[in-house]
């Protein structure tokens, strides 16, 4: 191992049920350099970093850190070895002071007794902040400082461990321009004065070209390549990130596309999305692409009345409709299969049947009581139609595989006979077989004249299923591309805020 | 039509997971009938069920609340309040010897009392659903206030001199079975249908199992919660009327710690404190276990203090079993 490198990872493999997240990834980080780790959603960046931080454990592969074999079981282990991480979503304790947050887990206690030495902690935090040029009072409560400042506190905390390698996962997502410049200063200081290496994950290409020295690219869990930043331009970087062949894609049959069914005009929700407008035609599959946090899910939640928008208009078949609650959307023929099955989808302790009938339970009443015969018939028909694998409909949904749970949730909404079906990441975390079945189903539904909005972070899925693609970037529609014009490069460019 | 045959061999573990409480109940009855021949007499069994009926009815309302991940601590105090209210309205005659005496047809007295229970429950539910106050605190407030209201209403004194037609509810019987047992059966059937065969019942489970998913499915979570607490208040009023009629008096000291016994029955009956799981038949079994245990220990002459200790153990064990089930997920 050369002396210049602080970290070398070789042939790292990691699987989760149903997915191979990392398939033999390499990564080499030089001492005192800022190294960008690039890739689309799901490329494996976060998984790789979580291995370094002791949250995941690789099945295979070798990691050398500071010339020593490196294997950690927990974040505390990683910190003690000299690697610290600022996660994408920081979660400080709002009820403690800034200094207490910085010293969380390594509190300074007075000699002999186990009482906290608050004064000393404030003093040392102040010294740390002065060193980094951060202007925050360490003795105020965490709840009183802004999100951007909390992010700076998280960065200072990560540095305070005397780490040799600091991982920053999307550190600028909550920062303004001015604060981003501040962050750049801090990073340059760490690199030049303290010889600390930084792994910098970001989707914003401008940032990468401003602050990073080297770049490594991952794609679909594989290592694509590394180079020094001078040898890259934006086009080369984007093509390395997406460059896969089209033959693995599912091909949707052409459906007859009719008139405009749904129109959303100038919908806004403060701090989430702004002036979003789009149309949806009958029989059309509208793909919604964008990076995580672009506001795609929030737009759909607003359309469905789950978290209503502050302003904007919704028209269905040319008529203006008011959607204040999900029940209004359901009555207007909209269905919503949400992104997170566990959080907003399944009722884990209820049977498949009960999970299916929940939104339109009114239709199963006979004299005020539930008609178990009708429930059974309808659910059975639906189950056969989309091949849910289960011995009985009485089975609790929590006992099904992810793919079958997803089929139950799609069935739930198909039973409401919707005209507009919103699918948010319909194939996330499910195995390949179920995935292609769901793709085929989406195609069939479009052929039947249903209109579909499909949010997806998977390029192949978006490209192969959509008739039209809307791309979002930081809460705004950054562009729309028709099926025939769509390429991975164009979508990624729009998603990262570049112009076409 | 090709019928798919499914041969399932449920393991003993799975069976015990689901019906363990029934097995324990039967085992308890078998042991008691061996060690104490008096246990199996019709008179003793009738007695046990009649004693259980008051807490048993309250615990069915508590079951609804706990399935939504809520709780109702106010039932004991509500029993005290409704007991003095219904007693004051069921007087034989206007009399100076009673703190409050109102004469009216007992049907009205009963309907007003039931409505009072439902209204107090609605207040509990509204505080929880719209006020976003944790149900523990909302019903704790109601518990304290209702207790005060009961004492205030009668200056802390009991109310007697009740009509015979009213006391019949607690002391009479129909085809050899005491009226309280009939009421218990009717309320159990009603609650079971409500929980397992109606839209409302499914919504209760949905909210307890995954509130966010329930909202996505278009369920009005707030309205459903208010209904749950209103129904619990109604059942508490039924119990209060039965207790008052049984003892021929209303008393502001009634119902002390009944809410805890009701919660214990519910929990022993397998209703999960983390919500989304529970059933009325098992709630009845839970109440019967406590009743049979009390009765058995009485028959065996176990010291009353020991009885409390044993009951405490059983409650904790029931929750431990639930916690283990939760953890395995």
Question: What would you note in describing this structure?
Answer:
The complex is a heterodimer of chains A (500) and B (329). By secondary structure, chain A is of the alpha/beta class. Chain A has helices spanning 45-52, 75-81, 98-102, 118-132, 147-160, 177-194, 205-211, 234-242, 296-303, 326-331, 341-345, 352-357, 372-386, 402-414, 432-447, 459-465, 488-495, and strands spanning 5-16, 19-30, 34-38, 60-65, 68-69, 83-86, 165-169, 197-201, 214-219, 222-228, 260-269, 273-281, 285-290, 311-316, 319-321, 334-337, 365-366, 369-370, 420-424, 451-455, 468-473, 476-482. Chain A folds into 2 domains: 5-246, P-loop containing nucleotide triphosphate hydrolases (Rossmann fold, 3-Layer(aba) Sandwich), CATH 3.40.50.300; 247-495, 3-Layer(aba) Sandwich (Rossmann fold). Helices cover 33% and strands 26% of the residues of chain A. In chain A, the strands form 5 sheets. A 6-stranded mixed sheet of chain A has the order 6-7-8-3-9-10, sandwiched between helices. Chain A is globular and about 75 Å long. The model of chain A has no long low-confidence stretch (mean pLDDT 89). Chain B has 329 residues and is mostly helical. Chain B has one domain: ABC transporter involved in vitamin B12 uptake, BtuC (Orthogonal Bundle). Chain B is 71% helix and 1% strand. Chain B is built from 13 helices and 2 strands. In chain B, strand 1 and strand 2 (177-178) form a beta hairpin. In chain B, helix 2 (42-67) packs across helix 12 (280-299), helix 4 (106-129) packs antiparallel against helix 5 (135-153) and helix 7 packs across helix 8. The model of chain B is unreliable at 1-8 (pLDDT under 50). At the A-B interface, helix 10, helix 11 and strand 18 of A face helix 8 and helix 9 of B. Chain B: One of its GO terms (cellular component) is plasma membrane. Chain B: This is ABC transporter permease. Chain B: The chain crosses the membrane at residues 19-40, 52-71, 106-127, 133-153, 165-195, 228-245, 266-293, 305-323.
């Amino acid at each position: 191992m050369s002396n210049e490198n602080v970290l070398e990872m070789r042939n790292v493999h990691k699987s989760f049920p149903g997915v191979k997240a990392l398939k033999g990834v390499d990564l080499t980080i030089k001492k005192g350099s800022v190294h960008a780790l690039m890739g689309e959603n799901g490329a494996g960046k976060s998984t790789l970093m979580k291995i370094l931080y002791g949250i995941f454990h690789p099945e295979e592969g070798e990691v050398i850190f500071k010339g020593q074999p490196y294997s950690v079981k927990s974040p505390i282990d990683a910190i003690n070895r000299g690697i610290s991480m600022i996660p994408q979503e920081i979660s400080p304790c709002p009820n403690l002071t800034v200094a207490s947050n910085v010293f969380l887990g390594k509190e300074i206690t007075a000699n002999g007794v186990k009482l906290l030495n608050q004064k000393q902690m404030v003093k040392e935090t102040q010294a740390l902040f002065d060193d980094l040029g951060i202007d925050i009072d360490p003795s105020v409560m965490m709840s009183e400082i802004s999100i951007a400042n909390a992010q700076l506190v998280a960065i200072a905390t990560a540095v305070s461990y005397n780490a040799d390698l600091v991982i920053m996962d999307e550190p600028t997502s909550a920062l303004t321009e001015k604060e981003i410049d501040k962050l750049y200063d801090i990073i340059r200081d760490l690199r030049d004065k303290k010889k600390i290496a930084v792994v910098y994950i970001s989707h914003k290409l401008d940032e990468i070209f401003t602050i990073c020295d080297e770049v490594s690219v991952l794609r679909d869990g594989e290592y694509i390549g590394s180079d020094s930043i001078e040898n890259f331009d934006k086009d080369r970087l984007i093509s390395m990130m997406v460059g896969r062949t089209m033959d693995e894609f599912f091909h949707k049959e052409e459906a007859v596309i009719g008139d405009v069914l749904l129109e959303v005009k100038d919908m806004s929700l403060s701090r989430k999305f702004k002036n979003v407008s789009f149309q949806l035609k009958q029989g059309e599959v509208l793909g919604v692409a964008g990076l995580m946090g672009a506001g795609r899910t929030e737009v759909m939640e607003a359309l469905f009345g789950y978290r209503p928008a502050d302003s904007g208009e919704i028209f269905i078949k040319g008529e203006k409709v008011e959607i204040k609650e999900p029940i209004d959307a359901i009555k207007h023929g909209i269905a919503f299969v949400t992104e997170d099955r566990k959080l907003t989808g399944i009722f884990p302790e209820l049977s498949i049947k009960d999970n299916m009938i929940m939104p339109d339970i009114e239709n199963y009443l006979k004299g005020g009581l539930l008609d178990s015969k009708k429930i059974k018939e309808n659910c059975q028909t639906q189950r056969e139609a989309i091949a849910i694998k289960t011995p009985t409909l009485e089975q609790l949904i929590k006992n099904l595989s992810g793919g079958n749970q997803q089929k139950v949730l799609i069935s739930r909404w198909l039973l409401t006979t919707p005209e507009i079906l919103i699918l948010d990441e319909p194939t996330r975390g499910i195995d390949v077989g179920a995935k292609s079945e769901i793709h085929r189903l989406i195609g069939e539904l479009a052929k039947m004249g249903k209109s579909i909005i499909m949010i997806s972070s998977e390029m192949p899925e978006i490209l192969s299923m959509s008739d039209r693609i809307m791309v979002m970037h930081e809460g705004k529609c950054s562009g729309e591309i028709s099926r025939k014009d769509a390429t991975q490069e164009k979508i990624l460019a729009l998603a990262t805020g570049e112009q076409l | 039509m090709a019928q798919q045959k499914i041969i399932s061999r449920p393991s003993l573990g799975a069976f015990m997971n689901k019906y363990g409480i029934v097995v324990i109940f039967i085992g308890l009855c078998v042991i008691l009938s061996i060690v104490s021949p008096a246990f199996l007499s019709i008179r003793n069994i009738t007695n046990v069920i009649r004693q259980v009926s008051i807490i048993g009815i309250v615990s069915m309302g508590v079951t609804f609340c706990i399935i939504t991940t809520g709780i109702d601590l106010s039932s004991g105090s509500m029993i005290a309040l409704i007991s003095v209210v219904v007693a004051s309205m069921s007087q034989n005659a206007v009399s100076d010897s009673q703190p409050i005496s109102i004469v009216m047809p007992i049907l009205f007295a009963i309907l007003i009392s039931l409505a009072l229970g439902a209204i107090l429950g609605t207040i509990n539910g509204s505080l929880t659903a719209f006020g976003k106050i944790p149900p523990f605190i909302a019903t704790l407030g109601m518990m304290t206030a209702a207790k005060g209201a009961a004492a205030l209403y009668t200056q802390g004194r009991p109310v007697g001199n009740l009509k015979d037609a009213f006391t019949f509810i607690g002391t009479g019987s129909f085809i050899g079975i005491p009226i309280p047992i009939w009421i218990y059966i009717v309320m159990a059937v009603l609650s079971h249908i409500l929980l397992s065969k109606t839209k409302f019942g499914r919504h209760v489970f949905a909210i307890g199992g995954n509130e966010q998913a329930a909202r996505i499915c278009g369920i009005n979570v707030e309205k459903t919660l208010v209904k749950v607490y209103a129904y619990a208040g109604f059942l508490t009023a039924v119990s209060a009327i039965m207790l008052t009629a049984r003892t021929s008096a209303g008393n502001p000291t009634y119902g002390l710690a009944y809410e805890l016994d009701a919660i214990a029955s519910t929990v022993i009956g397998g209703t999960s404190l983390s919500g989304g799981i529970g059933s009325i038949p098992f709630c009845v079994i839970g109440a019967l276990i406590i009743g049979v245990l009390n009765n058995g220990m009485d028959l065996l002459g176990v010291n009353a203090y020991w009885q409390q200790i044993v009951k405490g153990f059983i409650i904790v064990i029931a929750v431990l079993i639930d916690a283990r089930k939760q953890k395995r997920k």
